[in-house]
Write a structure and sequence with these properties.
This protein has 4 helices and no strands.
């Protein structure tokens, strides 16, 4: 049973990571499209098409994440759901701390 829960939690956390799409923090993968436009010398039309693909896929991934979360919540007790919410919050806090450290490191380098 614990192995099954661990697999489910891994699926949720993995799905959550991908739900935000490329260039996390940028709606619809804008950073990725900008990068690809520059590196691949995409035309304006190609860039718009790429943006549409990233937006569509991001919506699909978000829907899949939400569906997965609903299924997991149906399995867990209310206490387990609360514990999982705490785990997610702590993970988010650690991510924010790492993000801030990376930002500081980049600023020190002058980038």
């Amino acid at each position: 049973m614990m192995k099954k829960v661990a697999v489910i939690l891994l699926a949720v956390f993995s799905t959550a990571a991908f739900a935000y799409g490329p260039g996390h923090g940028h709606k619809g993968g804008e950073r990725m499209v900008e990068h690809m436009t520059q590196k691949l010398d995409l035309s304006e039309e190609q860039s718009k098409q790429m943006q549409a693909v990233f937006e569509e896929q991001g919506k699909k991934m978000k829907a899949l994440h939400d569906e997965t979360q609903d299924k997991i919540n149906a399995i867990l007790t209310p206490e387990q759901q609360d514990k999982m919410a705490d785990m997610k919050e702590k993970r988010k806090e650690r991510w924010e701390e790492r993000k801030e450290k990376r930002k500081e490191k980049m600023e020190k380098r002058g980038n």
